[in-house]
């Protein structure tokens, strides 16, 4: 059979020009070969991506053309090592499109996504390449392989199967077309959400309408208004602004406007509307699953996860929903009763819940974000978290101002192991909202860790949040929830930083979604510990340490509204599974699907015009399709893991060393349960989780 090589699309002359002039493909001389953001221009991405694809094709063609007997080294490892330049360029393009985008960058991403998808599908469906991989896989029991080698072989082989390697003829072409369209649509989904978010601003000029709101929130809103050349206050749909209004604004009409604007993003029947895109995405995913022999996309996606199949996920969600519901009803009843006792005579609506809930929490525990914020100066919190990482894992963080960054607010840190003085990673921290940055908080990387044949590559980690900016009067001050968010995302960062694997595709956070969140949620437990808070929580004006009575109240309030918050997360998981469990093409109404999914997990009626699905970037614009349940699944793991620390000391060096060695540093080199059991000695149970939530009698 003739060898089918991947054909070149760029001429040698074109490639030489890119090689000579494009900073994205040059040899980087920056510290630790970090991206030279000061040299990279938006117009560099397209030629660099096309060039990198050609170089990746050369790598693949070298494997295909090799006449030697296929081996683990010349086929599987060679495949794993292929396309490094492409990884670099694509990682930069798509990470920047999330954190620091522009119309031009969005256009470049839209143009390059189908090209990249076509390359990926061409590789996955190359019969000669797959034949070599299959040859090695079929002989796996007769080859001397380490456990990590075996995991890589399984991942590569099954990845090819799931990407259509066995398809032929019409099915093959349909799979390729569906994959390309899906890549474009998920990108467009996120762009629509960002555009819809940025299209709204609420200008308030009457001070009486915001009386009682915290001064920090008013300062931020006044600063935003000034930047927009408005009078008074400007409130946006960025998280700090939105949450402040919903929690504190006494004007119910303003809360209603903000709530409806936030919860109707990308659902206005305009150019940023996502309803049709949702239909197309779920149908394309269903088509891909069907072509590969699965009844639903959920079945396709869950096969390699800890949960294994939709039945297990649905049973998990339903069982936890049944457990949570009585507590959620109690939480709602408590807020309704409190509001009524304090002069609210109407029907409690969704835009009322946070406002009255905040007041009840303050009265019940004498605690509020406004009370705690002065003790959570972002700079102090960051240093406290760095200290925590030092105590647990002997890590040290040193800012390096010589490392180029993509925005003036971004800071870059070198991370070292204090015991060995080994360089571990570069950590970029990007804290503040921008109009060209998507909402939320996340961890990602510009480069993964690997150590093939002694050539160790250390990772470049990116942590992105949307915390309140400093104002002319105050530094950036965090709410307690934002401290939790910081710890959560930093948990992902640690997973990426301490990784010590051979292969890039198994390193760091390259593990099942229903396991990876356990590593981040584990870190949130420290927010309730006095020993941790005492490291950094001092008043930004007076230097006074956070009072013990405040710490006691934080711990007392840990279970406040736990039932309500639980059913909200479970609703997201149920909605995700509803969309990705369809077994026939969907041509119905998006809002109706959401209403059906919400029936058993909502205690308040849906509001006309509002829709979670149209802004659900995790599942329609990210990698959590049929995987959102993993947040709750991982909470069980995180609680069980933290119980080991609680039992033996939250900074116990023996326990933290075992957690680092057996779990965090191992990435996906073994199955998640094997890694966890090596640390804990048993599979996780839900006992610690239920106790933590207060769901016990």
Quick recap of the structure?
With 697 residues, this protein is an alpha+beta fold. It has helices at residues 12-21, 45-65, 72-81, 84-99, 103-124, 127-138, 147-162, 169-198, 215-227, 239-248, 252-262, 275-291, 297-302, 310-341, 350-365, 369-372, 378-393, 480-497, 513-524, 530-533, 548-556, 562-580, 590-598, 617-620, 630-648, 653-662, 672-680, 687-693; strands spanning 201-204, 233-236, 395-399, 411-417, 422-430, 442-447, 450-452, 455-457, 460-464. α19 (513-524) packs across α25 (630-648) and α25 (630-648) packs across α28 (687-693).
Topology:
Layout: H1 12-21, H2 45-65, H3 72-81, H4 84-99, H5 103-124, H6 127-138, H7 147-162, H8 169-198, E1 201-204, H9 215-227, E2 233-236, H10 239-248, H11 252-262, H12 275-291, H13 297-302, H14 310-341, H15 350-365, H16 369-372, H17 378-393, E3 395-399, E4 411-417, E5 422-430, E6 442-447, E7 450-452, E8 455-457, E9 460-464, H18 480-497, H19 513-524, H20 530-533, H21 548-556, H22 562-580, H23 590-598, H24 617-620, H25 630-648, H26 653-662, H27 672-680, H28 687-693
Parallel strand pairs: 5-9
Antiparallel strand pairs: 1-2, 3-4, 4-5, 6-9, 7-8
Helix pairs in contact: 2-4, 2-5, 5-8, 6-7, 8-12, 10-15, 14-15, 14-22, 17-18, 18-19, 19-25, 22-23, 25-28, 26-27
């Amino acid at each position: 059979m003739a060898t089918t090589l991947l054909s070149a699309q760029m001429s040698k002359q074109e490639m030489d020009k890119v090689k000579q002039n494009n900073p994205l493909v040059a040899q980087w001389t920056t510290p630790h070969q970090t991206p030279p953001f000061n040299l990279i221009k938006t117009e560099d991405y397209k030629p660099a991506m096309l060039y990198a694809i050609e170089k990746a094709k050369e790598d693949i063609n070298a494997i295909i053309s090799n006449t030697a007997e296929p081996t683990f080294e010349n086929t599987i490892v060679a495949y794993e090592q292929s396309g490094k330049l492409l990884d670099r360029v694509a990682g930069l393009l798509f990470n920047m499109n999330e954190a620091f985008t522009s119309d031009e960058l969005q256009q470049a991403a839209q143009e390059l996504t189908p090209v990249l998808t076509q390359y990926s599908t061409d590789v996955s469906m190359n019969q000669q390449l797959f034949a070599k991989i299959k040859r090695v896989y079929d002989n796996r029991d007769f080859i001397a392989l380490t456990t990590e080698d075996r995991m890589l072989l399984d991942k590569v082989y099954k990845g090819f199967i799931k990407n259509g390697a066995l398809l032929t003829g019409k099915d093959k072409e349909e799979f390729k077309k569906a994959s390309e369209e899906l890549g474009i649509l998920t990108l467009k989904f996120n762009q629509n959400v960002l555009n819809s978010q940025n299209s709204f601003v609420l200008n308030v000029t009457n001070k009486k309408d915001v009386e009682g709101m915290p001064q920090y929130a008013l300062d931020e809103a006044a600063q935003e208004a000034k930047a927009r050349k408005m009078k008074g206050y400007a409130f946006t749909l960025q998280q700090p602004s939105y949450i402040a209004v919903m929690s504190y604004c006494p004007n119910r009409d303003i809360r209603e406007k903000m709530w409806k604007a936030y919860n109707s993003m990308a659902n206005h029947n305009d150019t940023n509307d996502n309803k049709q895109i949702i239909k197309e995405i779920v149908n394309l995913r269903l088509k891909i699953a069907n072509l590969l022999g699965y009844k639903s996309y959920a079945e396709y996606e869950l096969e390699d996860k800890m949960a294994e199949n939709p039945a297990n996920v649905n049973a998990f969600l339903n069982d936890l929903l049944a457990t949570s519901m009585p507590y959620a009803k109690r939480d709602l009843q408590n807020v309704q009763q409190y509001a009524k006792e304090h002069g609210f005579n109407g029907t409690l609506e969704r835009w009322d819940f946070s406002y009255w809930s905040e007041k009840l929490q303050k009265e019940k525990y004498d605690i509020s974000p406004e009370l705690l914020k002065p003790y959570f100066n972002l700079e102090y919190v960051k240093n406290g978290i760095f200290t925590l990482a030092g105590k647990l894992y002997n890590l040290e963080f040193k800012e390096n101002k010589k490392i180029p960054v993509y925005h003036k607010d971004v800071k870059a840190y070198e991370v070292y192991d204090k015991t060995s003085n080994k360089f571990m990673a570069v950590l970029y921290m990007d804290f503040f909202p921008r109009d060209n940055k998507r909402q939320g908080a996340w961890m990602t990387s510009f480069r993964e860790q690997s150590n093939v044949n002694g050539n160790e590559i250390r990772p470049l980690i990116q942590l992105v949040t949307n915390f309140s900016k400093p104002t002319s009067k105050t530094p950036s001050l965090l709410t307690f929830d934002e401290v939790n968010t910081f710890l959560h995302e930093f948990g992902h960062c640690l997973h990426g930083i301490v990784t010590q694997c051979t292969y890039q595709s198994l390193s760091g956070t390259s593990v099942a979604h229903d396991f990876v969140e356990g590593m981040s949620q584990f870190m949130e437990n420290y927010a309730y510990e006095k020993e941790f808070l005492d490291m950094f929580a001092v008043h930004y004006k007076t230097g006074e340490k956070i009072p013990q009575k405040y710490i006691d109240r934080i711990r007392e309030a840990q279970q406040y509204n736990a039932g309500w918050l639980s059913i909200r997360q479970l609703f997201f998981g149920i909605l995700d599974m509803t969309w990705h469990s369809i077994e026939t093409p969907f041509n119905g109404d998006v809002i109706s699907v959401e209403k059906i999914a919400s029936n058993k997990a909502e205690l308040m009626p849906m509001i006309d015009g509002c829709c979670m699905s149209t802004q659900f970037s995790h599942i329609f614009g990210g990698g959590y399709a049929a995987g959102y349940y993993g947040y709750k699944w991982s909470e069980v793991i995180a609680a069980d893991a933290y119980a080991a620390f609680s039992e033996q000391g939250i900074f116990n060096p023996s326990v933290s060393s075992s957690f680092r060695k057996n779990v965090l540093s191992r990435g996906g080199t073994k199955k998640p349960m094997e890694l966890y059991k090596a640390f804990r000695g048993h599979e996780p149970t839900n006992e610690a989780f239920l106790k933590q939530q207060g769901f016990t009698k």
